[in-house]
């Protein structure tokens, strides 16, 4: 009895077929272990069999169902305890004091910006906002451990990723107000940032769609890394919440990432709630990390309140993701969503306020890092007051500047769809222009940069 295996795969510039295995023999070198073929065991003394769908499964005559509830939960990696004390003195934190101070300042800045923008939305000055309270260490810590050239896909609670990569307060505010300086031309709702310069794809409202996008991008990067050996290799990094992991996109993405062995890191922020749904109603298994093992992916669970653990885990994950041409990594970052899901949500309708206040008091990434800094005499109450006062002023100044800016030109409602305006588009533009000019009291176009004249700019363009 024998197992015959043949397949074809496309490589850059040519078609390549792996060696054919017949009766356990190889005709040439095989690259990956999971591509190897062996004979099916045919003797009574054989201990294992290589079924096509289960590698190296041992035979047993004991009827024993695997029961996950009887197994130990996947451990959670941490470097600091909740009091800011280093657990392994020999290993330390892998972070210089100056860098730790910068990370702390960025987390405080993110926290203050979230607080002020949440209040601005309640005042009616912003239409929508989402805070990162309790999860600042995940976004800022992971972003600090990546290469600036790595391609990132965010969900909607990763403002810290943008901040750590250099997204300015003015850029944040311009996007939130959708003004004329918004890089997205005012076409997205608030908190849907994007930056080509920082290699971060624009955020989408649709849940989990960025996960398969990241898997596809990672496959493209794998080919680039192979074709450009002189250029530092890059990876794709994808952020999402545990609620997004309940979508089919998550499973499809991890499966294709595993089978194609792409250089990608999938970072799940498990903050306990998907909008109004607690994890107890989302899944029965051991979190999201247990799913990584099911897809054959290197997996780690990390204490998201420990920024040093987040950084070390991300650094090691990036190194592993580039090994042997590429491989996907799944990291489940554990946290607690202190804030409401968004400004459209009242989380006290489905959880006790006491529970939230207890988490605020007990542990969070900002407090834990501050304790470590104070333990090394790098921080004190006076520095804290000065930082918060200065940061608050900087955020408010950027807010005021953005609020005063005009809205993007009206022409952006039409351009960018086709390379050149179609005849149908021209008719639409002319009709809109006519309405705006005939009813000036009903339509205030002065708040838009260029007013009606911006439509003339489109109509004057030659096809």
TrEMBL record:
Keywords tagged on the record: Metal-binding, Mitochondrion, Oxidoreductase, Potassium, Thiamine pyrophosphate, Transit peptide
Query: Taking the first listed entry, what is the main subcellular location of this protein, grouped into a coarse class?
Result: mitochondrion
GO MF, one term, reads: metal ion binding
Q: Which is a Gene Ontology cellular component entry for this protein?
A: mitochondrial matrix
State the Gene Ontology BP annotations: branched-chain amino acid catabolic process
Identify the enzyme class.
oxidoreductase
Cofactor(s) this protein cannot do without: thiamine diphosphate
What are the subcellular locations of this protein? Mitochondrion matrix
Q: Cite the EC number.
A: 1.2.4.4
* UniProt cross-references to InterPro entries, sorted A to Z: Alpha-ketoacid_DH_E1_comp, DH_E1, THDP-binding
What residue stretches are annotated with the Dehydrogenase E1 component domain?
Answer: 105-410
Q: Give the family, as the similarity comment puts it.
A: Belongs to the BCKDHA family.
Which PANTHER family does this entry report, sorted A to Z? 2-OXOISOVALERATE DEHYDROGENASE SUBUNIT ALPHA, MITOCHONDRIAL
Q: What does this protein do?
A: The branched-chain alpha-keto dehydrogenase complex catalyzes the overall conversion of alpha-keto acids to acyl-CoA and CO(2). It contains multiple copies of three enzymatic components: branched-chain alpha-keto acid decarboxylase (E1), lipoamide acyltransferase (E2) and lipoamide dehydrogenase (E3).
Protein name per its UniProtKB record: 2-oxoisovalerate dehydrogenase subunit alpha
């Amino acid at each position: 009895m024998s197992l015959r295996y043949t397949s074809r795969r496309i490589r850059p510039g040519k078609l390549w077929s792996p060696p054919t295995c017949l009766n356990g023999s190889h005709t040439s070198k095989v690259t990956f272990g999971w591509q190897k073929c062996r004979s099916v065991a045919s003797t009574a003394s054989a201990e294992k069999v290589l079924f096509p769908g289960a590698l190296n499964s041992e035979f047993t005559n004991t009827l024993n169902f695997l029961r996950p509830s009887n197994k130990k939960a996947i451990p959670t990696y941490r470097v600091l305890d909740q009091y800011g004390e280093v657990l392994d003195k020999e290993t330390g934190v892998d972070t210089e004091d100056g860098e730790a101070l910068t990370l702390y300042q960025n987390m405080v800045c993110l926290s203050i910006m979230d607080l002020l923008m949440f209040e601005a939305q309640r005042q009616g000055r912003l239409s929508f906002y989402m805070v990162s309270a309790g999860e600042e260490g995940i976004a800022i810590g992971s972003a600090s451990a990546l290469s600036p050239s790595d391609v990132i896909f965010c969900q909607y609670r990763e403002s810290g990723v943008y901040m750590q990569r250099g997204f300015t307060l003015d850029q944040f505010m311009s996007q939130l107000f959708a003004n004329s300086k918004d890089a997205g031309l005012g076409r997205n709702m608030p908190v849907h940032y994007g930056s080509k310069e920082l290699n971060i794809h624009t955020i989408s409202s649709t849940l989990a769609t960025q996960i398969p996008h990241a898997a596809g991008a990672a496959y493209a990067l794998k080919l680039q890394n192979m074709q450009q050996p002189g250029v530092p290799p890059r990876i794709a990094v994808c952020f999402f919440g545990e609620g997004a992991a309940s979508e089919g996109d998550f499973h499809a993405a991890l499966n294709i990432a595993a089978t194609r062995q792409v250089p990608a890191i999938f970072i799940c922020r498990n903050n306990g709630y998907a909008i109004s749904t607690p994890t107890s109603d989302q899944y029965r298994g051991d979190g999201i990390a247990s799913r990584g093992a099911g897809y054959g992916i290197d997996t780690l669970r990390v204490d998201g309140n420990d920024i040093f653990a987040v950084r070390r885990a991300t650094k090691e994950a990036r190194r592993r993701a580039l090994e042997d041409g590429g491989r996907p990594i799944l990291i489940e970052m554990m946290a607690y969503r202190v804030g409401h899901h968004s400004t459209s949500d009242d989380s006290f309708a489905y959880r006790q306020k006491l529970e939230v206040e207890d988490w605020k008091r007990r542990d969070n990434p900002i407090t834990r890092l501050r304790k470590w800094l104070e333990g090394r005499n790098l921080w004190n109450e006076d520095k804290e007051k000065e930082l918060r006062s200065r940061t608050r002023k900087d955020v408010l100044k950027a807010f005021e500047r953005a609020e005063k800016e005009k809205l993007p030109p009206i022409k952006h409602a039409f351009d960018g769809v086709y390379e050149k305006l179609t005849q149908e588009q021209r008719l639409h533009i002319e009709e809109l222009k006519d309405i705006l000019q005939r009813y000036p009291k009903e339509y205030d176009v002065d708040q838009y940069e260029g007013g009606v004249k911006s439509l003339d700019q489109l109509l004057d363009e030659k096809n």
